[in-house]
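dumping these here so i dont lose them again. two proteins, back to back, each one seq then structure tokens. dont judge the mess
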Amino acid sequence: MRWENLTGTPGSGPAALFGAGSVVTRTFDTPEFRGITFHEVRARSVLNRVPGASRMPFEWTVNPYRGCSHACVYCFARKTHGYLDLDTGTGFDSQIVVKVNAPELLRRELAAPRWTGAHVAMGTNVDCYQRAEGRYRLMPGIIGALRERANPFSILTKGTLILRDLPLLRQAAEVTEVGVCVSVGFTDTGLWRTVEPGTPSPAARLAAVRALTDAGLECGVLMAPVIPFLGDSPEQLRATVRAIAASGATSVTPLVLHLRPGAREWFTAWLGRHHPHLTGRYERMYAGGSYAPTWYQRRITRQVHELAAEFGIGPARRGAARAVAARERTAGPAPAGPTQLTLM
């Protein structure tokens, strides 16, 4: 593992992502953490600027973890584990990097005069409510730091642990824009058990959507991924959109499976073990790169939007899953001056 290339003292250069001598490796002999190794680090920066070429509709993210015990076979973030010389397959699922100082570091970075109060997205790389969060409890401090500065933010998750922080989210929504989005790509339990083995069930996630909306928070559903030939039949799409509508979700946005380097190899190996008859079809569908053909994406989007209209919900507007109108806003500090902080 190349921790030596990523640690250093302040001023040692952009490659020094963690403080010198800050890595502590732990294992816990409890059922929920058996087989998982945690690497506790003290990050040098926690606000990450999204590259300009990204398709994402936001500019800044916070990711308190690297690696994810959700173990989704398609996860695009797998490649990032390679930066640490960690395996992008089982290593990504079981070697979790924990930025133990994330809340205090974020509080300091948000208070810097150069910070302009831009929207901060969370859960866009790995899930901030994966199992590790149950032990390390980083999110309450992170949400608290954003609330104190009245800084708008959003959370995307497959983790039902978000309900633990519901009181904090409601408090934050009173002073700033808060968006919550839960990812549910399908309701097929057989598919879920093999492709997302470490996640709460789709039914449990939709129950979380109901709890969030009942508490007065707008909660959209990112219907992702729609998996070609396994989760995209008209019957499957209808069942999923119907369940999403029944959960009280304020929007549904479909996203077809994409297979970036790192994830592509791991997913292809999984496909060969579980559905070998589909390997040729996938090779043809993704021959042009990481994304399914445009015609296919448009077809899925049209079908989902038509079903959403039938069941009384609409597609998310750009940023809508990240904006809860506060009933009463209070003025927060007014930081000024743009900056580019060290990427993490």
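---- next one ----
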Amino acid sequence: MPELPEVEALRGFLSEQVVGLEVVRVLPVAVSVLKTFEPPLSAVEGRVVVGVRRYGKFLGLEMEGGPFLVTHLARAGWVQWRDTLPSGVPRPGKGPLALRVALENGAGFDLTEAGTQKRLAVYTVGGPADVPGIARLGPDPLADDFDERRLAGLLSGERRRLKGALRDQSLIAGVGNAYSDEILHAARMSPFKIAGSLTPEETTRLHEALRSTLTEAVERSRGVAAGRLKAEKKSGLRVHGRTGEACPVCGDTVREVSFSDSSLQYCPTCQTGGKPLADRRLSRLLK
């Protein structure tokens, strides 16, 4: 799933490509991606793009004198840039193409979604806050005012585990499954630690890990073409998606805890005092 660093990189890439150009056509291929009907998609056509914005994991094109075209890439969505778009109108079918945006210079981009779980979402709205998911977003962790005091306030009284709290978009915007693993590894904290139980020293450590992990990921992705961003993300991860490999910090084996629709990875030596966490799904299978 694209998270804050990848969406920020896509924002930078698209800003260089589309700002100042007129949108000629917006062609929905999978009608299921459209989550709004008023204003219609056609309200975007004939307008010049004046900015590309990021809101947590949402990406938005701002039109001159008109609506915003906002998308959430969900788990398997992506942006595929094309210097020259194919001629003709794409036909609905079983392929990954969901929506095409054509620009006045003949270039444009496709929104695609792999797999069978179709969760890619596109909104045409008067303003970003008209998208319910954006209206519910918590603060951006890379904002200038996101300091230790603010993080401590967000976590105060929080009874969920750190892993779940970090992934809650209404608490902190932009962090998903992969980077929550990376942040907790950098902070040397168990994903099962109760978020509201952090000491001031632990809050400082978590804040530093949160900011540094995301900042470094953004810097690695900056200037990378859209088509190479997924590979760039994977290459920079230390524990997420690396079950069975050696931890790059201590050399211990990276372990995994599985859930019904996701999993987390962690290093026992770095994060849990050397003790493996219980994998409840595996435990049920062994009974």
